[in-house]
Amino acid sequence: MEYSKKDLIKDLQKMGLKAGDICVVRSSLRNIGKISGGKRSAVFLDALFETVGKKGTIVMLTFTDQYQLPLDPDDPKQIFTRDKPTNSGGLSAECLSRPDAIRSSHPINSYCAIGSDAHFILDGHDAKSSCFDPIGKVIEKKGKMLIIGILYSSPGFTTVHWAQWKLGLSTKSKYKNKLGAYYIDETGQKQEFLRKDIGGCSMGFSKFYDHYRKAGILVEGTVGDAPSMLVDAKKALDVELALIKKDPNFPFCDNPGCKTCRIGWEFSKTSPIIFYLRNPKKIYSLIFKRSLL
Ligand SMILES: [Zn+2]
Fold this sequence. Notes:
By secondary structure, the protein is of the alpha/beta class. The chain has twelve helices and 13 strands.
């Protein structure tokens, strides 16, 4: 089956996306299937814009690489600029390439938005802000969250990271001040940015799905061939806050070898000795400091 822009708009509307909506979208274009009418990412992005219309706003993550300290002042790749390629996928890259796209200036966790509330959501999101500030603005504006084709490969809604930040957990990561990048400040000087709040591993975020269902806030369907989910960002946040307040370890994945989830937080339940005994290969990276995460 091949999907036209019109087909995709129909699917997006069935998911509950409407004219005037503000929506944070994460997706895997590959899982949508064949798309006719031009470059896949361009046609799908146009479908999103036409669904929310001129009064709506589409927001995407356009995160960029972070580097272990010490940073290398001679490596130009370590400097965040407006043009730095994103590691958040093809649709995000397509969004950035549009002439009317606004990108925030956070040196690692920038976002891109197009639409009437793009400035409200992204202005001021820079090296001094928390990584997930734009999600807070989306919630303030009664926005939605949509995930397409990544329900289990890159699970969950970014509102979970905002919940972790609101509960003061993001700054309790053991990787705090150990990862960074350069950025150019308002006077044109290159500055070092050290990451103070960390979202961490999101592979466990599918654990929230059943709780959204129980709360009756989850819209489930398909866009093209891709299983998809949509929620109201504020309603998702309320569910997440309640669960994480009860147990800050709730969003963590079940992989016994996940260093971030097992021992990466001040409140992680596993002791480092037990972790390394269970994962002897990780001792190599511990000794040679090959990889922080
Ligand atoms: Zn994990």
